[in-house]
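During the no-cost extension, the postdoctoral fellow (Dr. R.K.) reprocessed legacy sequence entries with the updated structure-token encoder. One reprocessed record is reproduced below for audit purposes.
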Amino acid sequence: MIAEPSSGIAASHQENSIHDETVPESTVQNGSCLRNGNLKTPRGKRKVQEQCENIRRNSSSTRRASQLQNGQVVEAVTLFEVVSMGKRAMQSVVDDWVEAYKQDRDVALLDLINFFIQCSGCQGMVTAEMFQSLPKSDVIQKMTETFDEETGLQYKKFMAYPWILTVTWPVDMDNEDYPLIKPGPYWKKFKANFCEFTAVLIQQCQCSILYDSYLMDTVISLLTGLADSMVRAFRHTSTLAALKLLTALVRVRLNLDVSKHNTQRLYEVEKNRITGKRTNCRLDQLERKRKECEQKPLEIQNMMNAIFKGTFLQRYRDVIPEIRAICIEEIGSWMKMYPDTFLNDSYLKYIGWMLYDKQAEVRLKCLLGLQGIYSRKELVSKMDLFTSRFKDRIVSMTLDKDHEVAVQAMKLLMLMSQNCEDALSSEDCETLYQFVYTTHRPLAVAAGEFLYKRLLNNQGDGEGLPKSRGKFEPSASHLRILIAFFLESELHKHVAYLVDSLWDWAASLLKDWACMTSLLLQDSEEDGALSGAQESALIEIILVTVREAAEGHPPVGRGAAKKILSVKEKKIQLEDCTKITEHFIVVLPQLLAKYSADAEKVVNLLPIPQYYDLEAYSTGHLEKHLDALLKEVKDIMCKHSDMDVLEACSRMYDILCSGDLAIHNRVDLARTQLIDELVDQLNQLLHDSWREEEGLCTGEEGISRICSALRRIAAFHNAHDLAKWNLHDKTSELLVFEMEHGSLPVQMILPALQCTYFALLWQLVAVGERPSSKETLLALRRELRLFCQICTCYLSHKNKDLSEKAFMILCDLLLILSHQNSSSDEAVGLLEYLPSMSLQSKMLLFIQDHVFTEEEEEFKDLTEEEERTKEGYKLNDLHRRRSLLAVYCKLIVCNVVEMVAAAEIYKHYMKTYNDFGDIIKETLSRTRHNDKIQCAKTLVLCLQQLFQKHINALGSSNSMEFSSTSFMNIKELARRFSLTFGWDQVKSRESVAMIHKYGYLQRYITEPGFCKGDEWHPLVWYRNSLLANEEEESTVTGVVGEWSSMSPSKISAFKRKLSNGSLLETSPAEATNKTPDFQYTLQLASPARKSRKRLKAQETPRPEYLPFLCPAGPKRRCSQDMIKTENFPEDVGEDVDVDVVGTDQG
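Re-encoded structure tokens follow.
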């Protein structure tokens, strides 16, 4: 049975929690020194270290290699140097060592021992003393690992039968690398050479010295002793060497099994032949060889057991993940190479336990090893117990936080499903299918392969679905299965992710547009026809597959950027575009004619022509299909009033009219005729139902027709310049009438507002492209001011949709007007428009009322359908509020609105972090990049206002509630703000010093009640240095001088205005809606507005503003009192990753 991993692993980690040291390299040159004898004193050790010579030079002379270093040829005389340089074939290097071993095995063996020691990064010396020369009681005493403080040397004594080895190396903590973990291609190649050397060593010795009971006993004793060391380098290197030796021994064992089988067959054949003198000699020879083949596997098995028990069992739970990964990787290879011995539950349990390892590298090695086993059907029969025990764990690993582990887990499950019957339940498969919608593309592609091979490519899964007849039968059945899966998943907005996941495996099916369109054009009364939901899903799939084939890159959200296509991929892309053009030029008009009344289907069909090769209309003489397409689009425009459909039609006209296409005149004529009809229809409706004094005089049917006409014109106005039809005056008149009287229906005002906005934008485009007269510019300026006034008025409209639409349009227009780019400076000066303080206050109030609103209480006892509807409403509402906040924060970032207005936004950072945290954090980062000082002042202002609100909530109570929830929230918000300054103190010094000057040091540390003892003198000195530096700064000095020249009475009056909220003139209605904190923000913003500048490509630092962060007055307070401060923890945990923004800004 396989034991449970949880408790065993935890206990074993504690048992194996050995001290992790790293062997450093010393400055000793040319490797180690080898001597036979004892080093009894440190002085003797130093003498040996200074005088020792490499006695292996003669035995290694045939192994010399050279390398050019600094213009000189350096000879390699040790195994380590030859292997690390990699200049010679490994087989010849091993052959030279084998010859040296046959001549003098002790010297050659010590050479090999020194090789493993040097590969561990130890460049001290190795001495050896014979085991037989010591009393038995001294052996245990020699097995120690000590440090000599006098000489600064580290000693390790261990037994490598028949010797006791002493490894000595200097301890240099400045260099902690050793060859296996050193970076760079040289050391990566060294690791490969090291592994190859151990494998070739066993391979070349398998016919001779491998069975002499001397070589392998010594090497195994050496590596087992090093693997038990407290030093990481010894453990890592010896574990890798020992396990690679075991892998090589497994290969030898496999060869022996083959030889044994062949010898047995020859023996049986020879035994059945006619007996004779010659035959008997041959039979005796085969008998001896057979016995030898039976004896050698036993010796190899003993070696393998010694390495497994002495190294693997001790190190597979090592504290170093690299060592654990090596163990798991090698045991996986043993199971694949020699399943008769290793593929059983006694060994499989180690891989199963390590599936729970905390390090992704180890978990990944487990999955890769299991993939090699489950990919072979002949091995799967031995995995029944393992599969039942660890299948759930493997399924859960598809959600691993490491993406590569999740991908390999998905691939392993696919192999299990293919080769293990009933290994995965239907619930498991349903769970795995949903990964095709994940944003990580490699995992989604792996899930797509699982879905394709398990569901789409399985002929038995489509038995319950109706069959199609004809040439499209195979693809039609698979498409029906795919549509059914998509509809059952209920993720209808993610069809692009589904198609992209299957693209690498089912490209031929997804590009079979002829089959798809044949299913759509099939008569609905025929047997096997698609339902309405299936038709909608198939049309979505068609659009996504056409886009994927034409663009050649994944959908938005999968992949950081567009991938660079290879020559082969570009060729396939061109072929697909040609195929799309040839097919849909003919079929698309038929599809539009069939589904012209269905808005959802039409919206997904109309974008297809943008992926055409539009020149094919003229080159292929297909003008009749173009006329049919334009006719169907015109009919759709007349039938529908839905904005999505109308905008899709408008975009298609824009695409067909773009460039220097041969069909431009034909399409432009059709477009002009359509717009003429729409404008004439609107004019006639307004003429019949509009009265200048009474307004709109018509019934519901007439209002509906007017609204539909306005929607169609607004959709066209978005992509086409309709200036020659002069629609601005008509729509503007409607807006003014609604502003003054407020009696028009909202469904009419919304498209009229859009039409007016688009008309103004097209006029701005015309002004930017060509010079205009001053009269034209002045007229445009009046129209822009009037439109901004209309939008401002609509902000307080009772209809929520209209007010939010007006806010979005107003923000976009203000951003455009504040960043005009024209060839004429006069045009820029006349058209530039920045919002007044009154408008800024109204916009900020709008954000507070429409974005940061309290959520309504949830209703209980709702049905599943009601819950789903409610969740959809919440998501749409959240998307709407995020859009409003984002467009307003854009104004702050671009210096259109005062930066201090962001203080009201930052107050909600903690409370609304899940909904708006990313937007607020990005705003903070961008504003800091524009002006670090002003951004810091805004943060302090935000905290001051929250603190003042907290004090006001306490009322007349004199005690400060530091443990209250509101105060703790302020403290946490301040901590989050502090994290945004990043770790670079040099970059953030100016901002932090400003906070201390204008915030804490001048206002909040002067009360004597908080002062204790003399331990705060450094704080006083720091405060005085800040105040002294303040005098040296010219900008700050000018501000202070300006304020100091004011009389005390004026300063007091200004303070009263700030505290009373009377600095700005506001209407009574506005005053009732404003909170005291909000009034304070707007009042303090007015001085800064004078120096506001538009954001340019290279922003210059803005001048210092009035010290508005100190509402109690700008006077310095030079009190020598001291305060008590809190000790904040230095370790901020994961918050650093979440909240540090703008750390790279200079």
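Residues 844-854+865-1006 form one domain. Residues 936 and 991 are 6 Å apart (CA to CA). The remaining legacy entries will be reprocessed before the final report is submitted.
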